[in-house]
Amino acid sequence: MESVFIPRLPLTFLILLLLSQPCSGIKWLALSQTPPSQHVNKTQHCKLLPGLVSAQAQLCRTNLELMQTIIQAAREVKKTCQKTFADMRWNCSSIDAPKYLPDLERGTRESAFVYALSAAAISHTIARACTTGDLRLCSCGPIPGEIPEPGYRWGGCADNLHYGLMMGSKFSDAPMKMKKSGSHANKLMHLHNSEVGRQALRDALVMKCKCHGVSGSCSIRTCWRGLQDLKDIAMDLKTKYLSATKVVHRPMGTRKQLVPKDIDIRPVRENELVYLQSSPDFCAKNDKLGSFGTQDRQCNKTSSGSDSCDLMCCGRGYNPYTEQVVERCHCKYHWCCYVTCKKCERTVERYVCK
User: Fold this and answer.
1) What span is annotated as the signal peptide, if there is one (predicted)?
2) Domain range enclosing 131
3) What's the total number of domains in the chain?
């Protein structure tokens, strides 16, 4: 009898493989764990990537060069989300821990934010990649049709928002358009919030200019349409998260739609985040709800906001500790043109939740 060799796979790879099985709109965020040394330059590589549904894998095979940009977008979502919510009890840890990812499918306002940010980030990253020349299939965005004011002229290289939105929505919405992708209510919620994220991206397209003229007179400005940084878009979405509307799935005419739970006399607005289920308070650790709790989280004793020791620690109290901080000091400007500084050390008091 012939023996069969069964290769032993690393634990990390097995976790990523498991992540790729269930249909979920944001399982592609597992791409953030892709090693920087791993390059997607062959169609065979597409089936090795974690978190992709069949339509996304197909997009990978037909747009190989796009995948490095999408992997970068997954990393940006994780980093930006955690920075944006660093001062809140829920600090986006669910994205960093694969076993808690189902929490982001429960229809909470946290999942609303993550879907919106993910949709915005993927289109943002693709649009910027067109501008920098990292993608051969696209180039700079179009020159605006309107005539600029005197002293201004169109030039430079605009971010290609049109291409970013087109390819980004194809990739990020693909899981929600599958038949087996959860309840109809959840699909509607995730598709709506993804579109809110893309609308926030459209609103973030602003005019950027570079000055020309004798001795910096700025007599002529060359301008183009460019996107704000993703961190600014994330802050806009955080405001929408804080004022998100709870909705219910109920018949409206011939089909079921999402309508505001408490004000169901009006339809859901296109620019508001919506959620189906209330969130926990995130004070205590609860694996099932995706709550890490706030024990040992740093808090701000003098703040009155969400990062205050009272709110962050949920009334449990906090422990002080001291830390040595090294910073630049006694800086001096030298003509021309550099600055020298000394290094100073000071002791600061910090606080962590009990």
Assistant:
1) 1-25
2) 23-293
3) 1
